[in-house]
Amino acid sequence: MRARNDKHSDRDWLALQERALAVAAEGITIADARLPDRPLIYVNEGFERLTGYAAAEALGRNCRFLQGPDVDADTVLFMRQAMQDGRECTVEILNRRKDGTPFWNRLSISPVRDAGGTVTHYIGVQSDVTARREAEDGLRRANLQMRRDLEEAAAIQRAWLPRALPQVPGYEFAWRFRPCAELAGDSLDVVRLDDGHVGVYILDVCGHGVPAALLSASLNRLLSPLPEQSCLFVPAADGGAGYAPAAPAFVAATLNRQFRASPETGKFFTILYGVLELDSRVFRYMTAGHPPPVRISASGATVCPLARGVPIGILADFAYKEKTVQLEPGDRLLMYTDGAFEAIDGDDQELGENRLLDALAELHGLAPGASLDAMIARIEAWCPEAQPQDDVTLLSIDVLQP
Q: Which is higher by pLDDT, 184 or 323?
């Protein structure tokens, strides 16, 4: 006998143990393994409270009488095999009380052996874990619903991305969007403004998840190709009913008036917006806290000048500036979000701007779409488990050779 105080007699100890078993909160049973069907020969008060069965109704019966038609057959088989092997087991099994109400029973079964090692009895300790199981089931259902909602929201967000790019003689546009989670804060579009101009933007909302995705979606509406609701257009200079392309700096100022980084949300965003003049091949752009574009030619990849600008929503009435780049046949102009060069490897080292430029120059000979696919693959390869830590979005303009 373990943990015995020798001041007490064997009879005292047996009486104390019997009283302790009787008043234990858990249900405790003893089944006789030497008799057919292992009947119960002892149940305590905790068992009576747990199941609703009086001791007289339970003794002499196998404990399986607590099982209902909805019991899990694999759990029953596991218990049966453990007892046949004479080993301990713990399961959670759906049982039914005397009044028919179900409850989840955490049942631990331990064999008791005689001096020769033969199993003579099984001790069962039973606890009602229904509240915990119901809470876990509720959490699983909530997580499943949240997963479905996120998937639906992600599908809606993807629907805002360009479905068909403008077909413009002498040019080819391409884009790739690689979110780091279900919902992203990046967005982009290519908009045919009029016969002579194409507008392109790429933006990055601070953060990830639902708040960033909601702000990104609202921005897509304000940057839509519909002149009546878009800040990409201004009324025609002749006072007529038409519209003309808005200057990039005007677009930045309009967005900055519309959005403020409030203390409650702390959300702001960066954006690169530019207007391509098709005849002259001049790209006029602004960079509101966003990385400038990269011009890629046969001689290599070069970062274009950074236009003066802070992220949208940071400083009210900020005076945004513009820059221009002259494109030539064979050039590729690439725009990207900072997830492209801030990708971190297993040694906590960033991919960095230099490696990004080297890769862009190396991939220049590929077709636009294939080049962007290859760049995304290199960014993924840089990251542990091919999982970038931030959204990666790429947008390119190719000036075709005549």
A: 323
Could you give all domains of the chain from N- to C-terminal order, each with its CATH number?
A: 10-128 (3.30.450.20), 164-399 (3.60.40.10)
Contact 331, 296 (CB under 8 A): yes
Asked if residue 153 has pLDDT above 90, the reply is no
Q: How far apart are CA 166 and CA 195, in angstroms?
A: 11
How confident is the model over 97-111, as a mean pLDDT? Answer: 96
Query: pLDDT tens digits, residue range 259-277?
Result: 877 655 557 889 999 999 9
